[in-house]
Model the fold of this input.
Amino acid sequence: MHKLRAISLICAGMFAGALASVGIQAYAEKNSSTLPLQEIRQFTSVFNAVKDYYVDEVEDRQLLQSAVEGMVSGLDPHSSYLDVDGFKDMNEATQGSFGGLGIEVTKDAAGVRVISPIDDTPAARAGIRAGDIITRIDGEATAELSLTDAVKLMRGEPKTKIRLEVARKGEMKPITFNLERAVIKTQSVKMQKLADNLGYIRITQFQERTAEDLAARLVELEKSGNLKGLVLDLRNDPGGLLQAAIGVSAAFLPHNADIVSTKGRAPQSDYTFKAIESDYRAGNAVKALAQLPSVVKTVPMVVLINSSSASASEIVAGALQDHKRATLMGDRSFGKGSVQTILPMSFGDKAVAVKLTTARYYTPSGRSIQARGIAPDIYVDDTPEGNYPTFQIREADLAHHLKNQEGDLADDLPYDDTNAEKAPDYMYLFGDEKDWQLQQAMAYLKGKPVVTSKYRGQPQSVVKKLRAEERAAKKNDASKSETRSDAKTDK
Done:
């Protein structure tokens, strides 16, 4: 069995709610000639200085724990040490049930940044948005907290209260949310039967049952006659299990088609995952996908993505785009093109783990998504009035992010207009009758015109020209208005 595939591969960040024993002595003996002795002396000197002179007494265990956490978290934004509670939360999250608020977060200099609220959770129902920055948790400032500590503050017993203060672009004052923690049981796959015999499937996260549940929804749509065209919605999907992403891709692609390849420093990290049973073996996915009607392989498809579509959702979007199996619509994705491996460790009765970045992943055509993201075939704004203003950042903006070997997202790439000053007066939920991007996806499937984004997807030079023309037009209109007003006064 392939060593990397034998370990759980995670393609997501840390949820807010959310190794076999290592022979350290044997490792030290094996690598004694390469151990950095000067740096080890430096560590012990600092350790002893803290023990001797810090204002309060600190236990050795606490200092060593902090050292381990810092060593791993300093590698990149997605590597972390999982203590007993963190490891338990990770297992529960990938299985679809965990406690907390239901948001995926990352660290930001100003606090804790929301990557994505998870559908049907306390955070989503309260109106927390992707891009919001959580500045205080129950009155405690988050700017100096580690991500792990901030997540622990947000966790708690179900039905207990918590207060978040949030900074949001376009709002002059912080927004306060009073929430009640809950056991988060996410429904990974949702379905709707649309007009004109079209179908809609939304994947909120990639979990153990995702491919299996997707297959069941596709069968249901086919039986009802709602599979003349399909909209697959991956917006605000932060990722999840790699095997689930492979299973979802395999549902729509030919047998043995390349889906994603991984390349890392260790030889066992190099592997090409295909649309074959051994690569999506989670749960009952093999049996479920084998029973899919043949129309699933050919049904016209639109895949919706946005700046909060990350990791596993980018794998699916990239595979379907490279194989020309679907048209991608929406906005450029987040750009998390790295694979995290969960390495369990047992120390006595304690089960902990290290979540470690072990490889970059590449689309079937060889594109690296890391720090660049997937560009849609058709850019469409959030609403008919434009995009919501947001503090949203992508992978390329995160501190010490893993670099794209071909270069990160650059100024000459298509423009992202996230600098709006006023939010559109237009609110909707993904999949409802006011969902503008879904409306455009349906129009595309029916062969009707699509209202594309005015700015997004355009080079910087074109955007500057368009904006200059708009400013000139507004100035001209204002001048004409003043002239008319003066003429009325003279009369």
Q: What stands out?
A: Residues 461-491 form one domain. Residues 382 and 437 are 6 Å apart (CA to CA).
